[in-house]
Design a protein that fits this description.
3-stranded antiparallel β-sheet, globular, about 35% strand, Barwin-like endoglucanases, alpha+beta, about 190 residues, 6-stranded mixed barrel, about 15% helix
Length: about 190
């Protein structure tokens, strides 16, 4: 336990010199000359090919994902500016994701570099700056929650937002897969918790 704590503390202290390298087996992190092979954290969306012209891992390491353009299946997505996102509101179909990440060794990382936990409340959006807080209202049952958007997607069927499994349960559509929702930005400040 003490060795694990020291290793994690050392990883946090040395994070600025940390590099992530994708290998055929898993993702390994190097801290100085020390390699840690247990840090396996593939992106939640393995579909992201590049962010601002960089590999997703490098873009996260450099902190360039908040408003950076990114490519999925050859299509370039350009996120909104903070000004554009201030009054954002949209109605459309929401889906949920996360169960598929439970079997990945080491878990997964969201597009802005945070650990993804399917049972927590979070979301993925194609165009909003990361992170941002959004009120999601299920128009079929009027349940409403505020989620932190910290990932990219969904990239299927013209859906407007992809919610974590935990968020879908709170909104009452987990068993159905999708629901018609209304989205409203409530805070653009990363540190704010509405």
């Amino acid at each position: 336990m003490k060795k694990t704590t020291l290793l994690c503390l050392g990883a946090v202290i040395g994070l600025s010199s940390c590099s992530v390298v994708k290998t055929t087996a898993n993702t390994a992190a190097s801290i100085g000359s020390f390699a840690v092979k247990t840090v396996a954290s593939p992106f939640t969306s393995d579909e992201i090919e590049s962010i601002d012209g960089l590999s997703p891992e490098e873009a996260v390491r450099q902190g360039r994902v908040k408003n950076a353009p990114y490519v999925v299946h050859g299509r370039t997505y350009v996120p909104m500016s903070m000004e554009e996102a201030q009054n954002y509101s949209e109605t459309g179909i929401a889906s949920w994701y996360g169960e598929e990440t439970r079997s990945k060794p080491g878990g997964t990382i969201t597009a802005n570099g945070e650990s993804f936990h399917p049972d927590r409340v979070s979301a993925a959006h194609k165009y909003l700056p990361l992170p941002v807080y959004v009120r999601v209202t299920n128009l079929e049952n009027r349940n409403s929650i505020i989620v932190r958007v910290n990932d990219r997607g969904p990239f299927a069927h013209e859906r407007v937002i992809d919610l974590s499994a935990g968020a879908a349960k709170k909104l009452g559509f987990y068993d159905y897969g999708t629901a018609r929702v209304k989205l409203e930005v409530v805070s653009l400040t990363a540190d704010a918790k509405p």
